[in-house]
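Putative Flp pilus-assembly TadG-like N-terminal domain-containing protein: structure tokens wanted.
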Amino acid sequence: MLCPRPVDCRRNRERDLAGSVLLDVWAMDAGRTEMKMLRRAEPVGAGFEKRRTVKGQALVLAIVSLLVLCLGVIVLFNTGQTVSKKVELVNTADAAAYSVGVEQARAFNLIAYMNRATVANQVAVAQMVSWYSWTNFMLRGTDNFKDAVQAIAILFDISIVGAEVGAALQEIVSALSEVKTAVQELRDGMQVAFSAGVTAISALDAAYSDASQLIAIGEPQSSLLLARKIVQLNTDNKATVGVRGMGLLETDAIAAAQYAKRYTIPTAGRRTADADRLANVVMEARDGFSKKRDGGIGPIHKRGGTDLVNYRDWVGVDTLNVKFRSFIPPVKIDVPLAWGGAAAVARTPASFRSVASPGINNGRGWDSPYEIDRGHYSRYADGLDNNAASGRVLSSPAMGGTSKAWLKSYSGTSPGLQDYNDVAADKATVPYDNGRSAMQNGVNKVDVGPVFTVLVEQPMNTVRTSENVQGIGGPPDFQTKDQAVADNMTALSSAQVYFSRPRELFANVIDSRRELGSLFSPYWQVRLIDTPCTVRQEVAVSYGTVAPCVK
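Answer:
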């Protein structure tokens, strides 16, 4: 609008400016209710331009943020699933390795229990032979004493003065006859019962021997099946022990089988160190009655004992002899008073002499190698070196004939030692690797025990990540590619079987000494260990990667 006068134009501008202020005030009041600011109306006139309104600036940022958030959620989901599966596989590998180790330790302990049972059975045979030999000795002694008393009674009967004494002695003879009859019946019953016992023990020891060998050979191989079963049960058949894992377990099984060695007992009468080891154990385990049955008064000497002869037969000898010698007057008395013998055999020998003589170690006796009972034991505790009675027992060990001296095994196996399994030389020499050398440990070679390593594998396409779960992600922007070596998620775990006698059960064990691993003591245990570096490298190379050893 044109102003005729400058004053009018100024007034018009002031009026328009005032109107604009009013419009701004009104718009601000309205904004408090509508939560947005309205722009004031532009006055129409010279010097003013019309402003444009701008909308939707935050939409682009919101869309980008939503994309990043979705991708982050998917990555977080995949990470959680992967970590969860990895933990599951590690636990599964630990469980499988530990289970395999436990089964192997139990197998060693079972062999140890059977070996101990065999030793106990041998002691039982020795006891039966001892009691049977002593019964034959008592029967012979009763008969000899009866005959001596009867001869004296006859002498008194002949004389008129000693008729009453002779009659009293005849009563003693009658009583001794009854005792002899009772002892003989007892002896005959013992022969039947003890022969049955020897037969049962022989069969049982043979079964123990065969079972030990079967366990020693077959148990390590069963670890392959056990490991696969444990893995499948713990992962719902999604993970497995693959070809690489089976190769590792097969190697470990072969190594574990080398810890148990088969020791044979010779049958041709020759001696071997392997057979002597078991013979020493059973000889030391004998009870006191079997080891030595001696006594006597003055010139009367009672001697007797039971020995393991030629590893296969148990032989007992008991003799009672009186030996006296004087120079004034020159008198020498060497009279056998009683004798008896017995032997547990598989086949009937030609004579008792062929079995009992010369005795253990060709008559040299037995030397105990153990510190708790170190010493020398003569053959049959000098029962076969008791002057005149010794010859009598070899020719006539039992009344009623030599056949009454045998306790026969009808099982077809020897009543003596059987082949057995024990730890091989230089195996399981220490309970743990203490970092010391073999010389410092006092052994020829440092070895703890067999190690079993389990390698668990699960294909990545079976892990519940966004790539393998329907409805999560979508091509092409919301999928995250699962990547793993050989497209498998893996876990590796190792367990070691070792021998250690529990210290809390045996407080008197010397701290500076450790018991070597043995299949006669059931103290085999298992623990999880770090997988050996060489095994980790072997597994890594099989996957085409490297696994440097970090100490």
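Residues 105-237+265-420 form one domain. The chain has a mean pLDDT of 85.

Cheers.
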